Amino acid sequence: MMRSIEIVEVGPRDGLQSEPGVMPTAAKIEFIERLIAAGSRRIEVTSFVNPKRVPQMADAEQVLAGLTKRPDVHYVGLVLNRKGFDRAVAAGCNEIGMAVVASDTFNRRNQGVGTDESIAAWLDIAQAARAAGVRAQVTVSAAFGCPFEGEMPIARVVDVARRCAEAGPFEIAIADTIGVGVPTQVTELVAAVRAAVPASVRLRAHFHNTRNTGLANAWAAVQAGVATLDASAGGIGGCPFAPAATGNIPTEDLVYMLTRGGYATGIDLDALIETGKWLQQTLGRPVPGMLVKAGNFPRIVAERAA
Predict the structure, then answer these.
(1) CA-CA distance, 86 to 234, in Å (whole number)?
(2) Rounded to two decimals, what is the model's pTM?
(3) What pLDDT score does 303 carry?
(4) What pLDDT, on a 0 to 100 scale, did the predictor assign at position 20?
(5) What is the C-alpha to C-alpha distance for residues 283 and 185, in angstroms, rounded to an integer?
(6) Active site residue 239
(7) Pick from 255, 213, 212: which is nearest to 230 by CA?
């Protein structure tokens, strides 16, 4: 049997948060519905953050209210503090994710507090999520490098992951927020984090393609045992507080690589490519993804009569 790889679609949040303009709410809802129709079942639909800092996400509640909810879909909201968590739950998110940056400097730039304060906030949020019956996961951001502090020591990432694991999340992600990692680092870091957190905690990986290593890193993560990957339709997005961020790994390119490599994703690649083309038209510019330009390449088996 083919091994299954789960893909968390982050385009509606991580993809759109760095856009120079604000996509209309109705278009965001259509974007999400298209992704669901293509087979996505975990979608980061928005973030509940300060709209003055990230105006692209100011309509978080309106987006959730406009979606036709399905019981088989996890509608993920990103939160950075307890206020954001309360908003996400009230809006109807059935999964929340929080980001804790391994770099203290980057955490202060991104979230206004140090890493220790974010970990404390995460521990409180995880407990509140459990009481509310909402699934909670956490991402260790800038796990491979920081634009302000440089290389990120593995010991530092492991320590942050271990402390976050004390809250009993169902999943911890390691994120290459600025796209500096290479496959050998992925192999080493996945092994180190896996050894440091309980076996019951799933691992996920989130890669940016800033230096064109994102897909190679995703493949390395799968080979290292990671069964869940983040990706963004069209490859749009990146962290608005990370200098020179050029986008996430494109979901359609990742699905193509995994499918051709013998893995099942449950996603209709052709429908996803069409969503990428729709996204180009809606944004009014080309997207970074390759399959939106090149198209699919189906495996054709032709039997000839002797």
Answers:
(1) 31
(2) 0.95
(3) 40
(4) 85
(5) 34
(6) yes
(7) 255
Answer yes or no: are the C-beta atoms of 19 and 58 closer than 8 Å: no
Rounded-to-integer distance, Cα 67 and Cα 45, Å = 10
pLDDT at position 244 is 65
Per-residue pLDDT reduced to its tens digit, 48-58: 999 998 999 99
Q: What residue ranges in 180-282 does DSSP mark as E strands?
A: 202-207, 228-231, 263-264
Q: What is the pLDDT of residue 183?
A: 98
Q: Could you tell me how many residues make up the chain? A: 306
- Those residues with Cβ within 8 angstroms of residue 214's Cβ, 6 or more apart along the chain or in another chain: 176, 179, 207, 208, 248, 249
Nearest CA to 241 out of 1, 49, 62 is that of 49
Cα-Cα end-to-end distance for the chain: 31
- Mind listing the pLDDT tens digit for each residue in 95-106? 999 999 999 999
Residues with Cβ within 8 Å of 294's Cβ and at least 6 positions away in sequence, in order, are none
State the Cα–Cα distance between residues 247 and 265, nearest whole angstrom: 21
Contact between 206 and 271 under an 8 Å Cβ cutoff? The reply is no
d(CA 275, CA 273): 5
pLDDT of residue 241: 61
Asked whether 220 and 203 are in contact (CB, 8 A), the reply is no
Q: Kindly list the structural domains of the chain, giving each domain's residue range(s) and its CATH number in brackets, ordered by start.
A: 3-294 (3.20.20.70)
Q: What is the model's pLDDT at position 11? A: 97
What region does 39 belong to: left with phi over 0, alpha with psi -120 to 50, or beta?
A: left
Which residues of the chain, if any, have pLDDT below 70? 1, 239-246, 299-306
Amino acid letter for position 137 = Q
Pairing of the two strands 145-146 and 74-79: unpaired
Amino acid found at 217: N
